[in-house]
Specification:
This protein is an alpha/beta fold. It is built from 15 helices and 15 strands. The strands form 3 sheets. An 11-stranded parallel sheet has the order 1-2-3-6-7-8-9-10-11-14-15, with helices on one face. β14, α14 and β15 form a beta-alpha-beta unit. α3 runs antiparallel to α4. It is globular, with a radius of gyration of 26 Å. This is Leucine-rich repeat domain-containing protein.
Length: 469
């Protein structure tokens, strides 16, 4: 300990940054006054609460509310617990600490929403905090007092009324909730640049789009974004969550077909209102939500969609449904990854569309069947490089074994390798991935050609490492 005290503060902070456990940092800070003054605030820069820390969320709320310096120090905030999970522990609610916070926020919401009643909103919010049946009201309080958060991770399980209410009412110009009673905003989220959201049951895109209005947000990572309960215009006009929301007997939202003509269901306002440049969707399926998220962006740089049979989402979204939305960003997209395994009846394969006009696209990752043209049930002879941009430097083709015509694709890949210097002069990497089981039987559907030794040899010759490119 004596050695630690002799180290300069900058070095102590650098050492502490490698300690992942917040409790260890707090224990170290409690050893001496000098370390407490230096490290106590630092312990709150990165906070992650998991499924076993429901009680800690309520405790953390009081600590941050009583110590504004600690609240302002938070940069990374993650709630891995379900936002509406029931708390088994008894929690304490200190009205002298929490009530002024929810009163100030509710007053601002009521001033912006003619249908909201501040007194009713406060009463309902406080009632749910006292009962502690749900985590989400507490998380909403925390979010209202951490103005410098840069990375936020949320786990949704139900509608998350208070969080959505806050982010729906913020100003898209400043990322703040205006305060009609003074200059200091009661809710400030102007530094958030990365949002990660997941759900065990699926998140509607309407839960995410209010976050897209934050001017500082540039990256969104979503797990289990899926079509869910139909939109209810009155849902956020109430003074609290609807009592019957948990009724599971509902009809799924209608399927949404992406329209190349531009007629699509967008977030209220206009498309191209968000500064988000990177979208990553994992294990998701939202035919109406994907176009909404893509077209909400002013300038999309990277779009990644991976589906691998996650629990809770039984089908993937066909890439053809949102290709027209991606095409709108053909002048800015540098990376497109569309990796959806066409197996077990989870979805349909087919030609996505040409990427020839994607002027700055550098990395493309697609399934084998997605870059071949299908026309009136017959495969055309249009080769793969006819749909690839000249700017491409990295091409990944996956699930070769599931391709309807691997023989044709191997021919196209050989042509691509031979003509790459002319068609794709910047291409330096071509990777083809597939799977052929050891116990393959020729009669098995889906592995007819690629499992034959002759076919394997063709594939190898077509896709070997290309040092000359």
């Amino acid at each position: 300990m004596a050695i630690l005290l002799t180290l300069p503060p900058e070095l102590l902070l650098q050492i502490t940054s490698h300690i992942n456990n917040q409790k260890d940092i707090l224990n170290l800070a409690s050893t001496t006054r000098s370390l407490h003054a230096l490290l106590y605030i630092h312990a709150f820069t990165s906070l992650t609460l998991d499924d076993e820390t429901h009680y800690q969320i309520t405790r953390l709320t009081h600590v941050l509310a009583r110590n504004p310096r600690c609240a302002r120090a938070v940069r990374v905030l993650g709630f891995e617990t379900e936002l509406c999970s029931r708390i088994e522990e008894t929690v304490s609610y200190d009205p002298s600490v929490i009530f002024p916070l929810i009163e100030k926020v509710s007053s601002s919401i009521a001033s912006l929403d003619a249908g909201a009643n501040a007194n009713k909103l406060v009463a309902k919010w406080e009632e749910q905090l006292r009962e502690a049946d749900e985590i989400e009201p507490w998380v909403a309080v925390i979010l209202s007092i951490v103005p410098n958060v840069e990375e936020l991770s949320l786990t949704f399980s139900h509608p998350s009324f208070y969080i959505r209410k806050l982010f729906t009412m913020i100003s898209p110009a400043t990322g703040t909730l205006p305060n009609p009673h003074g200059p200091e905003p009661p809710f400030l989220f102007s530094r958030l640049h990365t949002l990660s959201a997941r759900s065990e049951f699926g998140i509607r895109s309407s839960y995410i789009l209010p976050f897209f209005r934050l001017p500082s947000l540039h990256t969104f990572n979503g797990v289990m974004v899926a079509d869910g309960q139909p939109e209810d215009a009155k849902e956020l006009c109430e003074d609290g969550p609807l009592d019957d929301f948990y009724d599971s007997d509902y009809e799924p939202a209608p399927e949404y077909e992406d329209d190349p003509e531009g007629n699509f269901r967008c977030y209220p306002g206009a498309e191209a209102f968000s500064n988000v440049t990177h979208i990553r969707l994992i294990g998701s399926n939202s035919r109406k939500g994907f176009p909404d998220l893509i077209r909400a962006c002013r300038r999309l740089v990277s779009f990644v969609y991976e589906y691998g049979g996650y629990d809770g989402v039984d089908r993937f979204t066909d890439s053809r449904r949102f290709y027209a939305s991606l095409w709108r960003h053909r002048g800015s997209l540098e990376e497109v990854e569309l990796c959806c395994q066409h197996v077990n009846g989870l979805g349909e394969s087919g030609f996505i569309g040409s990427f020839k006009e994607f002027q700055v696209l550098r990395r493309l990752r697609v399934c084998a069947d997605d870059i071949l043209v299908r026309m009136e049930g017959a495969r055309t002879k249009k080769i793969a490089m006819d749909v690839l941009p000249a700017s491409l430097d990295n091409l990944v083709i996956e699930f070769f074994h599931a391709c309807d015509d691997p023989e044709e694709l191997s021919v196209q890949l050989k042509e691509l390798r031979r003509e790459a210097k002319l068609q794709c002069p910047k291409l330096v990497s071509l990777r083809v991935a597939g799977y052929v089981p050891q116990d393959f039987q020729p009669e098995e559907d889906g592995f007819r050609l690629c499992a034959q030794p002759r076919m394997r040899r063709k594939l190898f010759l077509a896709c070997e490492f290309m040092p000359q490119l």
